[in-house]
Amino acid sequence: MHLIDLSVNMLGSTPIVGNIVPVATGVAFATWLDGRDEITVVYLGDGATEEGAFTESINFAALKALPIVYVVENNFFSVYSPLSVRQPLARDVIGIAASHGIAGARGDGNDVEGVHRLAAIAATHARSGAGPYVLELETYRWREHCGPAYDNELGYRSVAEFESWRARDPIAAMERRLIRAGALDTKGRESLASECAAEVDDAFAFALASPFPTGQSFGDVYSTVTAGR
Amino acid sequence: MSREISYGAAIREATDQLMSESDRVYVIGLGSTDPKSIFGTTTGLQAKYGPKRVLDMPTSENAMTGICIGTALMGMRPIMVHQRIDFLLLALDQIVNNAAKWYSMFNGQQSVPLVIRAIVGRGWGQGPQHSQNLQALFAHVPGLKVVTPAVPADAKGMLIAAAHDNDPVLFIEHRWLHNTFGPVPEEMYETPLGTANVVREGRDVSIVATSFMVIEAVRAAQALARDGIEAEVVDVRSIRPLDVDGIIASVRKTGRLVACDAAWKTLGFAGEIVALAAELALEDLRARPIRVTLPDWHTAASPVAAEMYYPTAATIANEVAALFGKPQRSAQEWNLVRNAPADQPDLSFIGPF
Question: What pLDDT digit, counting tens, does each position of A164-206 carry?
């Protein structure tokens, strides 16, 4: 829900996805105000593009030609609600960007190399001073909206649709491609997989070993302590 | 003799000094660079500090608030300004979900040093969507600070304190205060947030007031003094954080409480003061506490409606008189007649709004 890692300039994520879009635009605005040579990348979804905050943000980003890339991960659902109940068929987020004079592109979000190519184009565009860029990447959510389980039994989507997307698993596809190209063998694959598993295990161990918050830290809602209460 | 300037000029001077003190401070708001410059409070600042320090903006209150938050996370000190507080409703998501929570939600790793100046209108045809006082909505939310200075010296000192504070502060200005005058020190100083101010001492009743109602309360106290009733007037100044100790000390001293607020009654700030008095000073109360507030109606758009809508110094004086078993009087009898229509702060006020 509230992930942050300032050590890698990851400034935060919020569960009202649309409301991070203005904040990220503000981060880009700060670099613009200071004339700094940095770009901002913000990740959102198809649902967030329906919020006014998205349109308000890209309007301002275009107005100031801010160095920002909006990455729309379109997974076709907002919680359980499919695109068909939320957006007219003709709606086109790249077109919405274009109507603000913003460049953009659409791509397959499950194609690792393809995403890398498009991201490079978007980042180069933002770095060049040409203003914002909108990237829409189609992908799919395998598990439930909130939690680690599968939830196809709820019936909001068909098993066939789910299976068709699972067959397009980007990691498995990348693995096949690397093996075909001779860049990865079974041993290399296994060592990569165990490295990743160890990182996840470490995170769990760290979480389990960490203390629970105290009432005092939980109630600490102000950074600057003042008089009064 | 100390120098007297207007409340609006005090805000302008505070902003100027803040911008001169740190190049991290910038001002953004619809109209902040237009000929009227937010009722004169940003006049000349763009010419002095440049187009990247004072900016007009699109009418996108929600995204623009988020954008200010983003710059604050990057170390800037935005002062955002809205000519009417009503427009903050369009930015509630950013204010309540992001600005208020960022510091705790991310375990104190970053804070949001954002000042939002919001002006509460009154009269001049402003009506239900341009003259509400929505302070309680915001002051209800942990993580926000909300101040309502009533006099020019506090307007300057609290704006400086708010801009120096690392948390989001909503700085509420009542439109009828902009053209009031008072002594204001020329140097830079802070009026600490969370401190109330006893603007008039008295032994008989505590009138605890916010914003423009402080002006009315002082006039009422002067009229009551002619009747031998000495009212103490406490200017709350900061509704969150709230100077509970200071307010309760006054209530304990006088044993009588009239909570005067420039906003609605139900679930409002005056009720909070009464609740605190009941919790903390019940044994000292010698009379039932009283709330003087706006009625729970939409704000008035015409002079006739304004006459019915806004409580005045005479309203306060009559409430206090009733506590002492004295008769009710007209504004004329109290010698509290204003020399302007009920929807105009004074006859010199000619808008624009």
Answer: 999 999 999 999 999 999 999 999 999 999 999 999 999 999 9
**A173 and A128, same domain (yes or no):** no
Measured between alpha carbons, how far is A172 from A188 in angstroms, rounded to an integer? 14
Q: Do A56 and B104 touch (CB under 8 A)?
A: no
Tokens of B54: 């004072």
In a domain, A1, yes or no: no
Q: Under a CB-based contact definition with an 8 Å cutoff, are residues A118 and A54 in contact?
A: no
Interface check B106 vs A, CB under 8 A: yes
Residue A55 lies in a domain: yes
Q: Is A17 on the interface with B (CB under 8 A)?
A: no
**Whether residue B1 has pLDDT greater than 70:** no
Q: In this structure, which amino acid lies at residue A135? A: L
Which candidate from B62, B102, B194 shows the least CB-CB separation from A226?
Answer: B194
Q: Which residues of A touch B145 (CB under 8 A)?
A: 222, 226
Domains located in chain B, CATH noted? 4-183 (3.40.50.970), 197-334 (3.40.50.920)
* Alpha carbons A101 and A39: distance in angstroms, whole number: 19
pLDDT at B173: 98
State how far the Cα of B149 lies from the Cα of A180, in Å rounded to an integer. 71
A2 and B52 within 8 Å at the Cβ level: the answer is no
Which of B13, B82, B130, B174 is labelled catalytic?
A: B130
Residue A57: domain span: 6-155
Do A145 and A175 fall into the same domain? no
Task: Verify whether the Cβ–Cβ distance B64 to A56 is below 8 Å.
Answer: yes
Spatial separation of the C-alpha atoms in residues B157 and B177, rounded to whole Å: 15
Q: Which two tokens stand for residue B219?
A: 């006039």
Q: How far apart are CA A164 and CA B176, in angstroms?
A: 65
State which residue of chain B sits closest to A66, comparing Cα positions: B67
Residues 18-77 on A with a CB inside 8 Å of B are: 19, 21-31, 33, 52-53, 56-57, 59-60, 63
> Looking at A140-149, B23-32, B47-56, B164-173, which range is the least confident one?
A140-149
Domain shared by A141 and A184, yes or no: no
Question: Is there a catalytic annotation at residue B130?
Answer: yes
pLDDT tens-digit map of A78-129: 999 999 999 999 999 999 999 999 999 999 999 999 999 999 999 999 999 9
Chain B nearest CA to A52, separation (Å): 8
What is the domain count for chain A? 2
CATH number at residue A141: 3.40.50.970
B contacts of A5 (beta carbons < 8 Å): none
Does residue A130 fall inside a structural domain? yes
Residues paired with A43 in a beta bridge: A71
Quote the ipTM score. 0.95
